[in-house]
Amino acid sequence: MSDGAVLLPWYGREMSLEAALRRAEAPDELIAWVEEAGEQEAWDGNDRGDWSLWMAAARGVPIGRLHTVALDALAVLRARFDRPPALLQTLDATLQAAATADGTVLLARAEESEALGAASSPVGADYRVQAPPGARALARATALLARAVEARLAARAALEQQLGLEALVRAGSVGVPQFVMQPAIGELTIFSASRDQPSFAPLVYALDAAGEAMREAARAVAGDDDSRTEEADAEIADLLFESLDRMIARL
């Protein structure tokens, strides 16, 4: 990344990373960091996975691609665990549903992972098998990312409904079929909707939940279900950085 304003292709005009983050309703702490460090240092020197996702989104990387990168990171962490079987099977099923954006099973899989991530519940049917430190945090991370994908699907549905109604009105005014006026919806970015549109809130949540998933993933790396370390945060950021950096470079 270079310092200064960048061209955001969906606007066709220049906007700084800080302004883009504000427009996207990114966390205040991140915005302050970008303002203080400068755009290049904020990206190259960032050591938090959740912030990596927000900054890439503010650069215009589609949310679906961000979810894919986050899912890849969780798959790496999942491979580090070898027990208990019930938890791992649930995580695998949830990650698969999220990766395919299968809305028919996504809610149920997210709820199952959430239940396994709760500190007050046994680890599935294998409660007699000691879960390794960080396993519950990984379950929570998986559930959160599934929720993020759910939100992305909801945002698309809301946007399609809104654009469909607008196309119907325009088509009726000029006497042509609705499909003639129906715009195609490409990959969703955080700027696919404005704040006053119904699809904006789920778009923000799709990012926010993915960011929280990366924070839970750091707890899994730290081997502590309740806290994370700077080193663990940095490891998650490193897992994300190369893929996100390539995506930004191709915009």
Write structural notes for this entry.
This protein has 251 residues and is mostly helical. It has helices at 17-23, 28-37, 39-44, 49-58, 63-78, 85-99, 106-117, 135-174, 178-181, 200-222, 230-249; strands spanning 6-8, 13-15. It has a two-stranded antiparallel ribbon. Helix 6 (85-99) runs antiparallel to helix 7. The longest helix has 40 residues, at 135-174.
Q: How would you state the average pLDDT, rounded?
A: 86
The helix-strand sequence is EEHHHHHHHHHHH
Provide the structure class.
mainly alpha
Low-confidence stretches: 1-13
Q: Give me the side-by-side strand order of the main sheet.
A: 1-2
Q: Total helix count?
A: 11
SS strand fraction: under 5%
State the oligomer. single chain
Largest sheet: 2 strands, antiparallel
Distance between the termini: 12 Å
- Give Rg in angstroms: 20 Å
Helical residues, percent: 55-70%
Which overall shape is indicated by the principal axes computed on the Cα atoms? globular
The total count of strands amounts to: 2
